[in-house]
Amino acid sequence: MSEFALHNYFRSSTSVRVRAALNLKGLAFDYIPLSLLKGEQASAAHLALNPSGLVPTLVTPQGSLPQSLAILEWLDEVHPEPPILPADPWGRARVRSLAHIVALDIHPVNNLRILKHLETEYGVDAEGKAAWFRKWAGAGMAALEARLVSEPETGRFCHGDQLTIADLCLYAQVLNNGRFDVDMTGCPIINRIHAECMQIPALQQAAPANQIDAI
């Protein structure tokens, strides 16, 4: 048994972020798959770990920790090598700000429970849900691209040449965008950074297609 157990879903972009960070830091973990399509995240066993009934949840020797960004920052504090946040306060704030465009602006309105609610409560069909996803993902990607283009700290990755939590969020979101045909032609910097991320084995291993529950 590993030190950590990650309760997650292969296609969840928030789960991708955490898998990538664990892989980058060389931390072994037990992979606990939860099918969001079957509602396994709402089981009594999982709700005992995460009352929100969401993924991912990282079970640690200290207890259960939900919320992907909190997990990423905690991992960086207790396992600081390689770092996924800059050392300086401005750099850390900037990286968090970029990550939040994905994690707080795009993801909450586009996750599975929102798309299901649109269908069950308002009769939105598959194309309508895809259009909804494209609208909000496109708006967030445009904002992120504008930041990356205009701010001098942008380098090989979102913040210089160091892979950070902003890149993990970007990587996972762009993978998810592909499922809904989000037009990324207006985002050359994001596309370049994503291509860089795709070359990193730890991130490749975190991709949805490479998980044991992939369907």
TrEMBL record:
It is an enzyme of class 5 (isomerase). One of its GO terms (molecular function) is glutathione transferase activity. GO terms for biological process: glutathione metabolic process; L-phenylalanine catabolic process. Pfam families: GST_N_3 (PF13417). The keyword Lyase does not apply. Coiled coil: none annotated. GO terms for cellular component: cytoplasm. Keywords: Isomerase, Pyruvate. NCBIfam families: maiA. PANTHER family: MALEYLACETOACETATE ISOMERASE. This is Maleylpyruvate isomerase. It comes from Sulfitobacter noctilucicola.
